[in-house]
Design brief:
Length: 444
């Protein structure tokens, strides 16, 4: 099977690249072995929450100069600020077309999203059902917040959230209450705790009569509030519509809170991206896994998957976006760390004793979080020092950044995936027009 672009990995990096390639008319396929990190994420798109030295970032794009000084090898510094901005603008517009409204602040600041721990995390884009607390005055417009769970739901404890939230000085004058909604259906589900997870609850609340009963109980339990915070238990693709309906039924402004996995807010993003990609004619080989590749003349010639052992997949350009340790894009062995498909060169790996900080909560990143594939300015990896002309990397597989401590996970994944797609598109266009690269440069 021959493609223009073949993408290994179906996370936010791989899908961003795939959608952009499919938009440009490239014959594209994605091979996705399993669930991506989106199933565990908040569903908000982090751009840059902290600099590598731990300093809090309020205006992410203004912080790029400091990032360049502190971590010149950071993926953002490789691709440049304007490419990051273009990619995030593209993502926001593309997702809006899929019906997922992602909002940023007008003044180019991060906003804060509430965590189940009652703390705040800085982020750049949040879904319309997630209240964006302003960076400098998070309590703005709020005098009464109700934190509501579902009776017996173990994945969200509103008392814990309330306890910590009330300790934040700006919330000293905000009344914070907690409540639990009861429904007969929940009582039955609670008998088996494995069946009382967000995804199971979402199936119940899809039934409009049950949503009406839920709304009635919510009004009784809450009384009055400026903001009602509920765990994210509403639908996958259609969750935002369900919440709109619930807001109409109750008159409350509702804020969804991502809780323990599976994260419906993250899954909502993935579902929307996959639908968009498929609508553009893209192919996804879901549940298949790339096992190895063959190289010829400094290029990746073909790859082999678990399900297509003897039938190689061939493409002009390849992207590897298999994630970090979490998604098996990187593997730690007793004394070594490897990229398991192609054995790509990694950035310097310290001795095993220094893979992590001994203080788990150290403000400094754990070194293993920054481990990854070494890439050049075009995001091309190498093998034994030799760059591979038609292979690129994107997302969590890349080295020199910590998505969690720096709060930049999805931002890096989207912008590097988009950056790679633009290069693939440019190559493809050149090939169609049959203009040699050297000649094109001379003309330019
Ligand atoms: C628990 C958790 C919570 C997070 N929360 C947030 C958040 O709230 N906001 C935010 O911005 N960022 C968050 N991040 C970071 C962010 O989600 C990740 O950095 C980003 O999603 C990485 O995307 P990716 O596409 O590079 O990799 P992944 O999402 O890890 O996707 C990699 C994909 O490649 C597939 N794969 C692996 N090996 C193969 C193979 N051999 N063949 C085929 N497919 C393969 C995997 O199955 C997976 O589908 C979080 C990360 C984690 C781990």
């Amino acid at each position: 099977m021959k493609f223009d672009s073949l993408i290994i990995g179906g996370g936010v990096a791989g899908l961003s690249c795939a959608i952009r390639c499919a938009e440009a008319g490239l014959k594209t396929a994605v091979i996705a072995a399993g669930q991506s990190a989106l199933h565990f994420s908040s569903g908000s798109i982090d751009l840059l929450g902290r600099l590598p030295n731990g300093e809090l970032v309020t205006h992410p794009f203004e912080a790029f100069a400091a990032l360049e000084q502190q971590q010149p090898e950071h993926p953002y510094c490789k691709i440049g600020q304007s490419n990051v901005k273009t990619a995030l603008d593209w993502y926001q517009a593309m997702m809006a077309e899929c019906g997922v409204q992602l909002t940023a602040q007008d003044d180019d600041t991060n906003h804060l999203r509430l965590t189940p721990m009652g703390t705040f995390r800085a982020t750049w884009l949040s879904q319309q059902t997630v209240h964006p607390f302003p960076m400098f005055e998070p309590q703005q417009g709020l005098t009464r917040i109700a934190l509501v769970t579902l009776d017996g739901f173990r994945d969200f404890q509103p008392e814990l959230t309330a306890d910590n939230l009330s300790k934040i000085p700006q919330f000293a004058d905000v009344a914070i209450t907690t409540a639990a909604v009861e429904l007969p259906d929940f009582e039955i589900m609670q008998r088996n705790p494995c069946e009382f997870r967000s995804i199971d609850i979402s199936r119940v609340l899809r039934d409009e009569s049950k949503l009406h009963a839920f709304a009635k109980s919510l009004i009784q339990q809450v009384g009055q509030a400026d903001l009602v915070v509920l765990p994210s238990v509403f639908g996958n693709g259609d969750g935002a519509a369900t919440i709109k309906l619930l807001e109409g039924l109750t008159g409350f402004t509702i804020c969804e809170l991502p809780t323990m996995p599976p994260s419906l807010l993250g899954i909502r993003l993935e579902e929307a991206m996959k639908s968009r990609y498929k609508a553009l004619g893209g192919l996804i080989l879901a549940g298949d896994e790339v096992k190895r590749g063959e190289f010829k003349d400094g290029k990746l010639a073909r790859i082999y998957t678990r399900n297509h052992r003897d039938m190689p997949l061939v493409a002009d350009h390849f992207l590897i976006a298999t994630g970090s340790f979490f998604s098996h894009g990187m593997q730690a062995q007793r004394q070594a760390v490897i990229e398991p498909i192609f054995n790509l060169d990694l950035s310097t790996i310290p001795h095993r004793d220094n893979w992590y900080q001994h203080d788990f909560f150290s403000p400094q990143a754990h070194p293993f979080m920054k481990m990854g594939v070494k890439a050049n300015a075009s995001l091309q990896p190498s093998r034994q020092g030799q760059a591979i002309e038609n292979l690129y990397c994107a997302g969590a597989l890349l080295s020199h950044y910590d998505p969690v401590t720096e709060g930049c996970g999805s931002g890096v994944a989207i912008s590097t995936g988009h950056f790679v797609a633009e290069q693939m598109i440019a190559h493809h266009t050149r090939e169609i027009e049959n203009v040699p690269e050297q000649q094109e440069r001379t003309i330019a």
